[in-house]
Amino acid sequence: MADPMSSEGLPAMKTNPKVIFFTDFDGTITLKDSNDYLTDNLGFGWEKRREGNIEILENRVKFRDAFKEMLDSVNKTPFSEAIQTLCDNIKLDPGFKNFYDWSLENNIPVIVLSSGMVDIIRALLVHLVGPTANKIQIISNDVQDRPGKNREQPGGWEIKFHDDSDFGHDKSLAIRPYANLPADKRPTLMYAGDGVSDLSAARETDLLFAKKGHDLVTYCEREGVPFTIFEDWRSILQTTKDIVAGKTDVKKVAAAGVEDYKHGGNVVETAK
What we know:
The chain is an alpha/beta fold. It is built from ten helices and seven strands.
């Protein structure tokens, strides 16, 4: 078994980075959430999906149950067709590629923590970013064939959850081993997210970027979790550059972010 403190147990530590950037994928790296897009266009639609999101925020249903119901409404479409539909319609955040190129140049590992499915995420990353996206570690759920069927048949696939948690994929479990490293080895940890799938990760890093106008901001404000708002990855890049250069630090950015929120407000999405 790998030593959890080794580069084998924590692959992002292999190059001894000073910063590790964890990020959600859907609606954070991309402009639209791929699972929402599939549900709204090939599944049971926006209204029922949004009702489920509100139920999750209000702690009335488990994320994994609502999410599985969403994707089960889509699986009449063969899995490869679903991926192609997403490649044809999902766009990259305008600042992410520049951020990622800069991260490669500055030894800042990017780790995608997603409640989506790894095959979809990898296909979209390579399609939207290019071959260098294969260097991005992805920790997410998977897809599996339904008994007696295969994923290229209507109704032939379903989500395979990463763990047994209420989230299906508890993102905090991937972050915590890095957070628990000894102080002399521990990098600064950052996270960017937008929605209900990011609730488990919201408290785990040194700096949380929460996307303006989305559910994660509502949750963090309600629960007193420090955060700074972002609109796209251009602002994340500038803030991260300033932190790495020593012009500011994560505590100052988070404190300023909360004040900006109090003065600027936040409008939760009502449509996709």
